[in-house]
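Subject: complex prediction, re-run

Hi both,

The earlier run crashed halfway through, so I resubmitted it with identical inputs.
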Amino acid sequence: MITIVGAGLGGLTLARVLHLHNIPVTVYEGDASAAARTQGGQLDIHEQNGQLALEAAGLLEEFRKHIHEGGEAMRILGPDGSTLFDEPDDGSGHRPEILRGDLRQILIDSLPEGTISWGHKVTAITPVGAGRHELTFADGTTATTELLVGADGAWSRVRPLLSDATPQYVGTSFVETYLYDADERHAASAKAVGTGAMMATVPGKGIQAHREANGVLHTYVSLTRPQEWFDAAPITAARVAAEFEGWAPELTALITDGETPPVLRPLHTLPTEHRWERVPGVTLLGDAAHLQVPNGEGANLAMYDGAELGRAIAAYPGDIEAALTQYEAGLFPRSAAESAEAARDFERFFGPDTPQSVLELFKSA
Ligand SMILES: Cc1cc2nc3c(=O)[nH]c(=O)nc-3n(C[C@H](O)[C@H](O)[C@H](O)COP(=O)(O)OP(=O)(O)OC[C@H]3O[C@@H](n4cnc5c(N)ncnc54)[C@H](O)[C@@H]3O)c2cc1C
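This time it finished cleanly. Structure:
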């Protein structure tokens, strides 16, 4: 039996690919159910990784039914609301968008009933010899496995079996807000955001928003501040908006009109070259393996890892170590290159030369 810890997009893609190969698998997930947490946010699913993973999972057609049309437009505004760059959706569909919750549900529905053990938060893992591991769950129960896959995200419980690396704060945090029924109730902000993505940045701060299905404006405010700044007082809309004094009201309204409490998302990364020596019976995928700054690739990469690992396991029946060796030989260079690229993108978006560096990026694309 193969055991996956974490029913995020990466773990679920792996489970699905294994299922297609008739390989028994169990997914242990800490959340009590699929609906336990809102899976906010819309994801671009890319041709070179996320879509390939969905193809391997036999779910490309199902995915296409849930695409949010028109979401590929991109606009860059100045702090005064002036337009610096405006590119409509070209209709090419290279980066179709889907709500994360919809994508996760497609994967969940594609697995046989009982594959996912919800409400099973792993609290300890003990090697018991010959590549086997015993998992202990928060409720005190245990399970033993011959292949353990850590798909349990940034703060992975499985990762310490392989590596001493821990995520480090990158110096920038996002604050997330949502506006609903935007065209009717927040018309000026809806117009500023347009039909796809909008960003307005200066060194040290920015407002990025995205129109999602059903008239939702989803905003990430970026603030480059030390951790202590965020710890010093509660993160309220007023406190965040005060950092944008003098900015166009249709931009600051994305913060002050937020209809959900602002959610702080401090950004952490693992080292760009994160890798490990082969340890029998255990590996990682997705954020657990290569946590990087957000550049629209993380979920795509997690799914791609899941598909690759599933294929490798299927290619070496009865030889787990050969499968893991092959998977990791692809994983390490791929992740290092992607993490370096993400760091470069992040610098362009949020570094000292923004928004000029972003304009150059989009104008040259
Ligand atoms: C602000 C922000 C914006 C982003 N935007 C995008 C984007 O637009 N596009 C994109 O591609 N990527 C984006 N990403 C990155 C993306 O969210 C991640 O890379 C992706 O979710 C990683 O998937 P995963 O399956 O590896 O892990 P996760 O999605 O983190 O899933 C891990 C799962 O493991 C479970 N779990 C954790 N610990 C345990 C435990 N001990 N026991 C049992 N279960 C456990 C969790 O509950 C969770 O369900 C963004 C990230 C951030 C921070």
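Residues 5-11, 28-31, 43, 121-122, 151-153, 157, 174, 220, 265, 286-288, 294, 296-300, 302 surround flavin-adenine dinucleotide (CB under 6 Å).

- K.
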